[in-house]
What does this fold into?
Amino acid sequence: MTVSRLALLFLCAAWWAPAEPAVAQWSLETESNLFYTDDVSLFSASRRLALMEDPTQPVVDVTNQGSDTVVEPSAEVKRIFSSALGRTELSVKAQGFVFATKSIYNHATFRFEIEQDLTRSLLLRVNYYYAPDLFLARNVQRSTGIVADERVSTHIYSAHLEGRPSEDLTLRLLTRYGSRDYNAAFQNRDTTLWTVGPHVEWAAARWLDVTAGYHYERGLADGRTQPQSKDDVSYINHYLALGLMLKLAPQYAVFLGGDYEHNIFTSTLAGDERQGQKEDIYQWELEFRRTLNERATFTAGFQRSVRVSNITARSVPDNNTWLGLECAF
It folds into this structure.
């Protein structure tokens, strides 16, 4: 199913779904961020390294591609209604990344989601995430030595079963299934993936919210059955995340987050540089939040990630800073 047909399906569902007029409502959430990044090749992967995003991004072979300014607009439309099944929420989100000088890295992502209350303390959330034609690099085909553009489109279907055993505690079980589909020059990297992991959200105190989670992910690439490619990007991934939201005052908050990924490449192909190799990613983030009024919040932040790989014995840093505005209508 194409993204346009899926979007139409969701919009039709939102329009025709049985609802009680007194409780049905539409809402719009928008966000705009202005970033400075010192490595455009890692910007996308760093920004999505989060529990509810797509933390296991495609393999990035070519880094240190220079700095740039990036504008990130996003908008999410929601409709909440009640039916015989209980509360239902439908949402469609579009997000863009526009680079000031390195426009080849421009891209967009889309998410379509349904959230359904099962009981007063249990809900099910399912969504489809689509990131089309993301440019990764001018890369080398391992089997031929030819240099070509490397692009990938990502399709991920996920389900979250979320329960609240108490007002202060939320437990979530996430599972994902998806694919990363590359352009013809790198189609041996086409990967099927699945993920499972628990999340915890805890209102530890009036001034502190804690979020933590773990993902186990397995990715299987077509290259594992193509020895002539010498390029199997199959992997086992362990991902850990911890976030602290410090509520300093009614209008001020500070978010401190840390993420860690351990990638184990599982290639057994002779001549493949990833055979027996691994990669570790360490990332931390600091964000200041200032509530301007009931509809708008100002944000400013800094993020640093370091990729440590034994493929070429290298350590690659990436730094991002931003100013942003979040609005709800």
Notes: The two ends are 31 Å apart (CA to CA).
